[in-house]
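Minutes, structural biology subgroup

Action item carried over from last meeting: produce the structure token record for Glutaredoxin-like protein NrdH (Loigolactobacillus jiayinensis). EB confirmed the sequence was re-checked against the source entry. Recorded below for completeness.
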Amino acid sequence: MNNLTVYTKNGCVQCRMTERFLNEHNIPFTEHNIDQEPEYVDYLKEKGYQATPVVEASNVSFFGFRPDQLRQLAV
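Output recorded by EB:
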């Protein structure tokens, strides 16, 4: 299993859907909420992301609610 990190923000529907998907499929993850931890905003911008959620694993990273990509992490 990949070491999975999800970057979220308050009021983000896609963030909640991503978290729900991961929880329902028993995929462990670490969450960083950029509203509560603003130090991650610059990190995400440096990586080229301008929207949340951002999902990072050891071999893949993407943004948005992407069930197709999330399913691959469950394997």
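Discussion: The CA atoms of residues 10 and 60 lie 24 Å apart.
Next step: EB to file the record with the rest of the batch.
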